[in-house]
Specification:
4 strands; Alpha-Beta Plaits; alpha+beta
């Protein structure tokens, strides 16, 4: 399954690594692609992972989920 999440506040490689690392800790998350230019985070999962859980994980890293 593929989910796209729009995130504000990511500006650098550290931001990318923080979001990627945190999301990969969620059970079922297989791959994370962060596009700093657009603010899009693409999450591929092998099983159902709620959008709310992904958003909470990103926000716990200090970024704002907008959609």
């Amino acid at each position: 399954m593929q989910t796209t999440i729009k995130v504000e506040g990511m500006t650098c490689e550290h931001c990318e690594k923080a979001v990627t690392g945190a999301l990969k800790e969620l059970d079922g998350v297989e791959e994370v692609q962060v596009d700093l230019a657009t603010g899009n985070v693409e999450v591929s999962t092998s099983k159902e992972v709620s959008r709310e859980a992904m958003a909470d994980t990103i926000e716990d890293q200090g970024y704002d989920v907008v959609s």
